[in-house]
Amino acid sequence: MPDPIRRTALLAALASTAWMLPAMPAAAQPQSSAAWPAGRPIRIVVAYPAGGVSDAVARALADRLGPQLGTTVVVENKAGASGILGMDAVAKAAPDGYTLGFSAISPLALSPHLARSPFDPVRDIAPVAGVMYSPVVLLATSASATPDFKALLADAAARPGAVRWATSGQASVGHLVLEQLRRATGVDITHVPYKGGGQQMADALGGQFEVLSTNAGPTVAQHVRTGKLRPLAVGAPARLESLPGVPTLGELGFAAANQASVFGIFAPARVPAPVLARLNAEINRALAHPELRQRLVETGNVPTGGTASAFAQAIAAESAANARIVQSAHIRSE
Fold this sequence. Notes:
The chain is α/β, with parallel strands linked by helices. 39% of the residues lie in helices and 19% in strands. Strands 1, 2, 3, 4, 5, 6, 7, 8, 9 and 10 form a 10-stranded mixed beta sheet that branches. The chain is globular and about 65 Å long. The relative contact order is 0.22.
């Protein structure tokens, strides 16, 4: 099966199985994990700044995991280098189950193809469970009169280089989406990379470029509701509940560009298998709770969950695909 289709299928499988996985009954949990967590606090290192969507989701998850595990779960933000600093802290933590990480999979599946990583993404990190995927939304600004994605491509074909596409940065997921569309269509679209999403959104509202790609979230939803930004397409396995009339890039015929940011919980390698199994079960139990699920959906994200092996498989598939994209498009980190 072609890589883009395989990646989409894996992501869809993660999303579709979350609610079919009951929490592991206490009697079925491996006996060697009985002493864990033994009342000790568990730390979740969030690889992004406080106040963002990923931070809010991690804290909501921690609030549910604490009572389920009978201990305190604290969140610590360690942002920098597109998530690498936080994941490096997890990789170097003691493998005892008391330090976890919450991050997108990009520090494991994309960043190592752009620059040397301070940790080995396979040897030093253990995927525990997928938590959510954050769709990539393609939005037209007031600088563009295009009503839909087909019209955007037609405009770009008619005016080579005139259509400007903003992303949150060089080698970001949004940039990969753009490169895949460039390859598939042959259109000349100018890439405008920003250093993060704040200034990108401010300039989008000011009509400084024609289109932007960004992750779904409350800010995007607000500007779509007020008509300041027009959604053209989404990168996701299926249409979003919040934007049911907006097609996926896969539906539009661009399976390779149909990408989303996948987030999950990670642990240092060599954490005992019974502890990892308990963690996976409790994360799936938390994600199945209606309140947490609603929190995720309200922020424009889609809960996933599933087994650790399925999560690891999705990361490996994404890493292999990203390696080919980076090489073929000659993408370099900033």
